[in-house]
Amino acid sequence: MKNYQLLCYERDPWNKEGYDAKLSHSMHLAIAQNGLAFQPLNHNYGVLFPKGVEAGDGSIIAKTLIQPCAFQIKADLFGIFAIQTGPQGENDLGAKGKLLCFTTKDFVHYSQLKPLKIGNDLILEVRVDDQLTHQVFWREVSGKVYVADFWFDEDTQRFETSGQHQQELKKMPPKVAGYMTDGIKDCLPRSVVTISDDLGDYLIKKLTEPRNVENLVPQDVTVHDSAELEEIKAVAKYSDGTKTKKQIDWYDQDVDFTKSQDVTLKGRIHQDHFIFPMALDRADPCIGRWHGKYYFIATNDADRNHSLYIREANSVPELVTAQEVKILDSDMYDSVGNLLWAPEFHIIGDQLFIFHSATADRFEDVQSFVMALKPNGNPMVKEDWMAPKRVVRTDGEPLFKQGITLDMTEFQIHERCYVVWSQRQFIPKDLGAWLYIAEVDKAQPWQLVSEPQVIAKPTYSWENNRAPVNEGPFAIQRQGKLYLTYSGALIDDSYVVGLLSMDAHLDPLNAENWRKNNYPILTSNTVPGEFGPGHNAYVIDDEGHYWNSYHAHPGKEGPRSSGIRRVHFDVDGEPDLGLTEALDLAPELVNVNTQVRIDSR
Fold first, then answer.
1. pTM of full prediction above 0.85
2. Quick check: 110 pLDDT over 60?
């Protein structure tokens, strides 16, 4: 028995790290084993955020929570009560006498249920006793303290309480105390629940960054030449139980492959190294592949977004030092005469396209464009690119007239071609940036063939932090799932990456088919020194590895700059964007050896 305990806590909003109130007023998790000190999970970032309230015009009013209390309902189900508060943790008059209610099976995926009505006044404090009977204690703004029995109705998926059993008490039960939380920055303990070994193991695998723990290499192999030797891979195993294959750089310079013999060969597991930043003043980066070459493109912050440059190389690592060539600027075409943003490479059929955002004049007029490479054209030659075409609706009208459209991405599934973009209405009111989806014509991908549908709004406070934004989507299709990462919040150190997902056989135009993760998967807490990471894209190399190109700030006040890191797929098969090179391949495990029989016949 590992005797796992799970601590639910908030963080002090007056912290010195710039961890805003919209983040600190959420439920965080820490885990302890056999009575030892609690260790924070998810990089000391919240995992449970309440949904915001949708106003009549569709905009989202952010909400936060305080006083999260976790308790066990049955063997495989837990509940959480909390108090709903405003965007900065202030009292929320709309939540008078009510508790937020959630259920979860694993403390990763949550269902937010109908609030539980237990009083008539503002609730300032809540506790739960689930040791013998489910009882909820609360203190109202009047100072009065009450207790009531509650239960969970599995048929209605609601918590219930009986007013007849409500009693007034003299004081609240004692707060959570006596637990070792000194190693958790700004921790405000709220509740502790005992969990099973299986669940504790899962949470450690899911909510801590995995690390390379073992590398396996086949022994006693037979090869005919050096080319066959290169096909021998190492299997890198990780602390979350996942594994991936890696190339080996063999020390075979002195081996005679024309002679049959048995040799002991040593080698080193290959790892490409990427400094951060790999490109200063380059934001919204994207790496694409075309005719055996890799290409890099990004928003150019160095000239205030008035030009687009690309790089060409034979491999992803070579892009770091490759020469940049300008293919578009704001003087080439009247239709894109000012800002140029968020370029992405996409191949549709046998043609290469660049999807990007641009405006002829004002920021408020930024729209989505598609630029096609001419037949047999060279991506590095600007004259080989056709003029950008503005994306239009089914009737040929502009995509949107009351605001901006930007960050359009593309993916193909079910033999159809879809685009997802960020759209922000400014007139008559700024509603924030939402994600839309539509199908497009494969031959003319700037032409929509279905009506736009909203699939995501900045519902949670982490994506509604300093600005209500969902933008920068990009798709991954893998193992029967369609993932769509996107960025949220303001483009400073609060910027984060969220995750939408759906089963790949479902219709992507149906918003009900998409599931949004309750917490972001990449934040300023994930990798030290990289602030506000986001607006990323992915490319798959010849080894089948996914590479994440993203931007972040090297220091809170640093310029948006590009980075590259391998995408890890976690215990649930979901993308993990925070696996650093040191975690991906342990330095002490890189050297390997094997017995090789060379058969020259």
1. yes
2. yes
